[in-house]
Design goal:
mainly beta, Jelly Rolls, 7-stranded antiparallel β-sheet, 5-stranded antiparallel β-sheet
């Protein structure tokens, strides 16, 4: 994902003074890009305060950084490295907050069941053009390849799997409601 860092990056607010969803997603995308390039250094205190979530058999998640989001009270902002083992499947689920995902290596399959998500193919990002990428059609499986990015909100029900013989590694910027489970599962894994 290519980010234009020459424009004003302050978060836009609504008339009530809260951060807009679009502005929050742009901020999450910027954070993910910065961490993908050089965010390997992290403090021991951040590691201790960031529990590692459990998603599914064959899927591991490592919280790289976590902080309470000052611009979104009641939410935490975290960056997570997720690894899908070959053949791993995640059952239909939602999250209590917005997510921006960057495919670091390997590939995985992602299906929107309900709600909205956008897929930005590697090299296709144009931040100045507004909403980037293509709207993902519900119940269609998309292959997410290295350099591709996804953005979706809390209301988006989806599944993910790794149909390949190699690990798939993703970096996610996650805005999550404090005190809520990181994932709300809706059923059993899809075949």
């Amino acid at each position: 994902m290519i980010m234009d860092t020459t424009h004003d990056t302050r978060l836009a607010t609504t008339s009530t003074g809260t951060v807009s969803r679009r502005s929050a997603l742009c901020g999450l995308g910027s954070l993910a890009a910065v961490l993908a390039v050089g965010g390997r250094a992290r403090s021991a205190a951040a590691q201790e305060a960031a529990p590692t979530p459990t998603y599914a058999v064959g899927v591991t998640a490592e919280v790289l950084s976590r902080t309470e989001a000052a611009a979104a009270p009641g939410f935490a902002l975290q960056v997570v490295r997720i690894t899908f083992a070959p053949g791993a499947v995640v059952a239909p689920h939602t999250h209590p907050g917005d997510t921006v995902t960057y495919q670091l290596s390997g590939s995985h399959a992602f299906t929107v069941l309900a709600g909205e998500a956008r897929l930005v193919r590697a090299g296709a990002a144009t931040p100045a053009a507004g909403a980037a990428g293509e709207a993902m059609e519900p119940n269609r499986e998309y292959t997410v390849a290295p350099g591709d990015a996804l953005a979706f909100g809390a209301e988006t029900a989806h599944t993910a799997r790794n149909p390949t013989g190699a690990p798939a590694v993703l970096l996610e910027a996650q805005l999550r409601e404090v005190g809520m489970p990181l994932t709300h599962f809706m059923g059993t894994p899809v075949p």
